[in-house]
Amino acid sequence: MIIVEKNEGPKIDYEIQNTATKKKISIDDDLTINLIKREEDWPVHIDVCFDADGNLVIGTAAGRAYVAEIDIPARRYAEPQGDEPAEPLPLDLDLCTLSLWAIE
């Protein structure tokens, strides 16, 4: 996974689970996002913020301060073999980006 620090300062704790069947990010041992379930045929962007009570939320509607952004590239497909349809390739976490914002 590509890690980007957006600004100076301490960042929230996170843990990445990267196995053949699990591709997850756990943020502050509170919010876990299954990246395999979020992958689409187009790029996916996920905002993670603190809400007014300091709880982690996905999205900016209830968010008050950015914590992280997760970018998942569009699903990739293997080259079709003959008349067979193209099969989706497993999500490659090395192509995903986790951008971290400083937290107070």
Name the features.
104 residues, mainly beta, five-stranded mixed sheet, three-stranded antiparallel sheet
General description of the model:
- Helix content is 4%, strand content 38%.
- It is mostly beta strands and 104 residues long.
- The protein has one domain.
- Strands 1-8-7-5-6 form a 5-stranded mixed beta sheet, with no helix packed on it.
- A hairpin with a 4-residue loop joins β2 and β3.
- The longest helix is centred in the middle third of the chain and has 4 residues.
Q: Measure the end-to-end span.
A: 25 Å
Q: Point out poorly predicted stretches.
A: none
Beta-strand residue percentage: 35-45%
Counted up, domains total: 1
Secondary structural class:
mainly beta
- Average residue-wise pLDDT: 93
- Backbone shape: elongated
Main sheet summary: 5 strands, mixed
Please compute the radius of gyration using only Cα atoms. Answer: 16 Å
Number of separate helices: 1
Q: Report the count of strand segments.
A: 8
Enumerate the strands of the largest sheet in spatial order, edge to edge or round the barrel.
1-8-7-5-6
Topology as H/E string? EEEEHEEEE
Q: How much helix is in the residues? A: under 10%
